[in-house]
Amino acid sequence: MIDIVQSVDRTLSILEVLSDYKEGLGTTEIGEKVNLHKSTVHRLLATLIYKGYVVQDKTTNKYKMTLKLFELGNKAIADIDMLSTSKIYTKKLMESLNEVVHLVIRDNTDIVYIDKVEADNTIRMASNIGKRAPLYCTSVGKAMMAYMEEELVEEIWDKSDIVKLTTNTIVDFNIFRKELKEIGQKGYAEDDEENEIGVRCVGAPVFNYRGEIEGAISISGPTIRFTKDKVEEFGEEVKKYAKKISRELGYRE
User: How far apart are CA 253 and CA 247, in angstroms?
Assistant: First the structure.
C-alpha cells in the first residue's frame, strides 16, 4: 500500500486545480473543488505563497499559480542529453528495420555523426562516430533544413561547397528548396544516392523542449537491400522514432 502524506497530497491537489484557472480562485472555490475546509485551504495556500508557487491578487484576493513549477520543469528538461536519451530508441529502430541507424547534430554547414547502431548485416555502412558530411546532400541534413527559417537555409547553402558528388546530388537551389518543402510535408527526407553511390538513407529531425532542432536520426543501407519501394515504410518508421526522442527531450507539437 502506498504511504501517502496527506498534507502533500492536498497541496498538490490545490496546485492542480489552480493550473486550470488563469484568473485564479478564492479559498472557498478552491475548498469546494478539492473537498477541503476553508481554513485548511488557507493554511496550505500560505505555505505555497511562502515557497513562491502561488501568489494572491491584491485586487481580487484570488489565488493564482506562479511560473515556479514551470521553471523547475525546465531545469529538469534542460539537463536531458539527446545522446543518452536517444539510445533506447535508435536501438529499437535498428531492430525494427535491421539497418544501421545514425544520430547526428549540425555544426555550421555539416552534420556530425555522434552515435551509430550497427545492424547485423554482411554489407555494412562505412561510417563512424565523429565523421562529417554536408547538410545539403544527406537525409539528416535535409531533414533538419526543412524545418529551418528560409534565411538560415539560404545562409547554409551559400556557405556550403556545393559539389555534385554523384549524378543524383541536387546542386540547384530552387530544386533544393522545392524538395525541402516536400520533406516538411512528409516529415522525413531521403538521400537517394546523393552523397554516395549505392547507399540510400532516410532521416527525420529531432526537436528539443524549446521547439528547436536538436539533431536528426537516419536509417541507411545499400540500395540493393534498401530498395526504392521501401522508402515510405522506412521513412515513416524513422519519423516515428524521431518523434519519440523529441518527446523525451520535452518537445510538444
Answer: 9
Nearest to 82 by CA among 206, 237, 190: 206
| CA distance linking residue 8 with residue 180, whole number of Å | 50
List of the chain residues with pLDDT < 50: none
- The answer to whether 100 touches 119, Cβ cutoff 8 Å, is yes
With b meaning 16 or more CB within 10 Å and e meaning fewer, what string describes 6-27? Answer: eeeebbebbeebbeeeeebbeb
Cell, residue 179: 524538395
- The residue from 53, 76, 99 where one domain ends is 76
Answer whether 0.85 is exceeded by the pTM: no
Alpha helices, H only, 55-116: 68-78, 82-97
148 shares a domain with 211: yes
Give tens-digit pLDDT for 169-188.
Answer: 999 999 999 999 999 999 99
Quick one: 217 and 94 in the same domain?
Answer: yes
Which residues, in sequence order, are bridge partners of residue 107?
Answer: 110
The CATH number linked to 117 is 3.30.450.40
Q: Domain containing 67 — which CATH number? A: 1.10.10.10
pLDDT value at residue 120: 74
Looking at residue 130, its pLDDT comes to 79
For residue 236, how many other CB atoms are within 10 A of its CB? Answer: 14
